[in-house]
Amino acid sequence: MKPLTRKLLGTALLTLVPLFAQAQVLRVGLAEDPDILDPTLARTFVGRIVFSAMCDKLLDVDEKMAIIPQLATSYQWSADSKALTLKLRSGVTFHDGEKFDAEAVKFNIERHKTMPGSNRSGELRPVTSVDVVDPLTVRLNLNAPFAPLLAALADRAGMMVSPKAAKAGGANFGTAPVCSGPFRFVERIAQDRMVFEKFANYWNKDAIHFNRIVYTPIPDATVRLANLRSGQLDFIERAASSDIAKIAADPKLKVSKITEIGYQGITINTGKSDKAQANPLGKDAKVREAFELSLDRDGIVQVVMDGEAAPGNQWVAPSSSFYAKNVPVPKRDVARAKALLKEAGVTNPSFTLMTATTSDAQKIAQVVQAMAKEAGFDVKIQSTEFATSLKMADQGDFEAYVLAWSGRADPDGNVYSFLACKQPLNYSGYCKPEVDALLNEARTKLTIADRVKAYAQVAAQEAKDRPIVYLYHRNWLWAYTNKLAGVREVPDGLLRLEGLKFN
User: Fold this and answer.
1) Measured between alpha carbons, how far is residue 22 from residues 27, 160, 213 in Å?
2) What is residue 74's DSSP assignment?
3) What is the predicted pLDDT for the residue at 11?
4) Is the full-model pTM beyond 0.85?
5) Are 63 and 83 in a shared domain?
6) 150 and 247 inside one domain
7) In 420-484, which ranges are continuous DSSP H helix?
8) Which of 259, 260, 272 is nearest to 419 (CA)?
9) What is the pLDDT at residue 23?
10) In what order do the strands lie in the sheet with 137-142?
11) For strand 378-384 and strand 212-217, is the pairing parallel, antiparallel, or unpaired?
């Protein structure tokens, strides 16, 4: 982008940011516009950031990714690990004044499991029924032990919405969501802003020090930073790695770096739609192997992230206890890539790489395009607004897709919905019964060692089939005014609002 164009774009966006002079207003710049503000249907990382203001969960995670209470004050597993009993916080109300209790939990879990289009159904699949033990006690019954359940309840599967509002809103609930978090929904203007105001009856209201929060989607990292520096924003997520040094040198700003638990990768349409078989990349695993071997992960990390990431080839980082050591990160081998294409009988394979309009995604696409060209690939880049790209992925209207996943406390949240047959986030359309069996086995095992054995076999098969080519695990890079205190660095990348305030 030319400097003048960037300046003009920045000026234009500045005018879109609501100007609240009051110190009690927190203004947050997001890298994308979220999809739907319904925790049952939502799937974007930026949506999770917004939900952290609006929708409390049964459980949460702390800086060390340990499970901690939120709407549930305690939990207990049965002796056979096939039932989870939760004690609920008393005196909690939803934003519409309705009472939060065990019946509300039962409604929400069943909604997550059965609502058409739910992206939570896979996360709660082993839950067979929900019992209301008493008004503040609920029991989740399982068909088998399910290790990832607590982590799921510490994310969107554990978010509680008002049953009354959800019934009234139906499929349109996300346009006027009602939860029980510290801030209630006021308005949303797509691609412009989302406004929330403090909920006066919040159970932990003394820890909330802002009267209003305004979230503004600004895909260009340079423009987000310009808004921060000019005082139009107080906090930005995913600052450009190339800007971190100068941000850190600015006495008016602060930087936080947090190692993520997710991944950045390229999802390939191998069976989602007819486009999978219409292109050699989707049709032939040998071509996908050639594509992966054309890529230099270390080079991608340096160019795209200025070193602020760790190369990787699985759904968890090499530093994770769940990393399959039997499948190490492959080195770039252009000669071997060319040989594989020759073996496959494919000359100069061409495919379209869909990418969001965010700065990082654009960089990845351009670097991948240049690297793959050296092996004989003709990669065309299709830049698409983020929410629109997700809809296209749902429909299988793509060949390859630059897509990041923010990660979950349990590795199941990084892999099951993406690789298991017919799961809601399986954009590749990948489906192998033997992989499903291993993924389900990993869910039922309660020790890391037993789960790693199953994941090692999944990783080996995934490395052969390559429905997703994992690239790296980034650092979350935040920048914010030095007036902002109480910022908590949690690896899930979400901005916690409790205790956050201006000095």
Assistant:
1) 11, 31, 11
2) E
3) 42
4) yes
5) yes
6) no
7) 433-444, 448-465
8) 272
9) 56
10) 72-77, 83-88, 137-142, 127-134
11) unpaired
CB half-sphere exposure, 365, CA atoms < 13 A: 24
Query: Token pair of 348, please?
Result: 């100069």
pLDDT of residue 138: 98
**Domain holding 180: CATH number?**
3.40.190.10
On whether both 226 and 291 belong to a single domain, the answer is no
Q: What is the CATH number of the domain that holds 153?
A: 3.90.76.10
Q: In terms of domains, do 213 and 360 share one?
A: no
* Sign of the CA dihedral running 223, 17, 207, 103: negative
Q: Quote the CA–CA distance of 426 and 382 in Å, as a whole number.
A: 21
DSSP 194: E
Q: Model confidence over 4-29: pLDDT tens digits?
A: 344 334 444 444 444 444 459 999 99
Residues 6 or more apart whose CB falls under 8 angstroms from that of 263 comprise 312, 314, 315, 316, 317, 404, 405, 407, 414, 470, 471, 472, 473
**pLDDT confidence of residue 6:** 42
| Type of residue found at 343 | E
Helix (H) or strand (E) holding 470, with range, is: strand 468-481
What CATH number corresponds to the domain at position 414? 3.10.105.10
Q: Are residues 485 and 466 in the same domain?
A: no
For residue 221, how many C-alpha atoms fall within 13 Å in the half-sphere facing its CB? 20
User: Do 385 and 358 contact (CB within 8 A), yes or no?
Assistant: no
Q: Which residues contact 266 (CB under 8 A, 6 or more apart)?
A: 353, 368, 400, 401, 402, 403, 468, 469, 471
Same domain membership, residue 332 and residue 386: yes
State whether 252 and 326 are in the same domain: no
- Give the pLDDT confidence score for residue 423 in this predicted structure: 94
Pair of tokens at residue 263: 């991944």
Structure tokens given for 381: 């880049």
Output the six-digit token pair for 418.
């993406």
452 contact partners, CB below 8 Å, separation of at least 6 = 321, 322, 324
Q: What residues make up the domain containing 244?
A: 3-55+166-260+476-502
Instruction: Among 162, 178, 203, give the residue marking a domain's end.
Output: 162
**Termini Cα distance of the chain:** 36
Residue 18: its pLDDT value, please? 44
Domain count, the chain: 3
User: Among 162, 178, 210, where does a domain finish?
Assistant: 162
Instruction: Report whether 471 contacts 480 (CB < 8 A).
Output: no
One domain for residues 300 and 239: no
Which residues of the chain are under the pLDDT cut of 50?
1-22
Residue 328 DSSP class: P
Token pair of 122 as six digits: 């896979």
**Separation of alpha carbons 470 and 464, rounded Å:** 13
